[in-house]
Design goal:
This protein is an all-alpha fold. It folds into two domains: 36 residues; 232 residues, MetI-like (MetI-like fold, Orthogonal Bundle). The longest helix is centred in the first third of the chain and has 35 residues.
Length: 275
């Protein structure tokens, strides 16, 4: 009897979170699916998949997400390496700087970038005072500002997976390679970097999927000139009240995110087996 009760214990403990997830995640997704085929046809999906305008917006969103993921990877790798190899005091300071933006709203952080990147903002004032430019650079209301804002928000999501993998690397491997005559660059390229690829892949997938559905940052820093799939969905609901088409776009975005995540997981498993 006691064994049976112990078997029911984990199930009972996990029932509430499952109900919570079902109510707040699965039900809205199912509601979107039903709403996208509300009239019994797939016309909304056909419009989203065949109209050149909407296909172009989807491709632009994917391109923007790839750029953001690539920049986050380039910037996050040295930060993660510093956190994994620094002393406790320096690592604590690094984590504080990394987590500090989470203490403020993403809306506040995005509006702060409008001040920094504006024509009379900090960046342009500094460039003009140093004589590096003769006129303010267009850093707002374009893709450049959107990329900068998104990288700032998503950078920690790239750092943490890479850092977690770096912590598990045995440092004796690098010492052994150095003892056998390998140069520091060869140790890094042949031993250290390949061992960190799982974290790089995981962080890239996470940042890319999050970037696909970004709304606030493109809406504010893009100034209406950078249209992403998230902005398009909001436009269909707010301006045109076309809920079935907005639902179809949401379902396609969700399916694309799942497909990309599954593809990266296959690649990650292949990389792990190869190494």
């Amino acid at each position: 009897m006691s064994a049976r009760r112990q078997g029911w214990g984990p199930l009972a403990a996990g029932a509430l979170p499952l109900i919570f997830l079902g109510a707040l995640f699965l039900y809205p997704v199912l509601r979107l699916l039903l709403l996208s085929v509300e009239d019994g046809s797939l016309g909304a999906f056909e419009k989203a998949a065949t109209d050149a305008l909407y296909v172009g917006v989807l491709l632009d969103t994917v391109k923007l997400s790839l750029i953001v993921a690539a920049l986050c990877l380039v910037l996050a790798y040295p930060v993660a390496y510093f956190l994994a190899t620094a002393s406790r005091a320096w690592a604590a300071l690094g984590f504080a700087c990394l987590l500090l933006p989470f203490w403020s709203s993403i809306l506040v952080r995005t509006y702060a970038w409008t001040i920094v990147l504006g024509r009379n903002g900090l960046v342009n004032r500094l460039l003009l005072d140093l004589g590096l430019t003769v006129e303010p650079l267009p850093l707002l209301n374009n893709e450049t500002g959107v990329v900068i804002g998104m990288v700032h928000v998503l950078l920690p999501y790239m750092v943490f997976p890479i850092y977690a993998v770096m912590l598990r690397i045995d440092r004796d491997l690098a010492d052994a390679a150095s003892g056998l005559g390998a140069s520091p660059w060869r140790v890094f390229t042949r031993i250290y970097f390949p061992l960190t690829l799982p974290g790089a892949f995981a962080g890239s997938v996470l940042v890319f999927v999050l970037a696909l559905g970004f709304f606030i940052t493109p809406a504010i820093l893009g100034g209406g000139r950078v249209i992403t799939i998230g902005l398009l969905i909001e436009q269909q609901v707010r301006q045109f009240l076309d809920w079935p088409f907005a639902a179809a776009l949401s379902v396609l975005l969700l399916a694309a995110a799942f497909a990309i995540q599954g593809t990266f997981q296959r690649v990650l498993r292949g990389e792990t087996r190869w190494h």
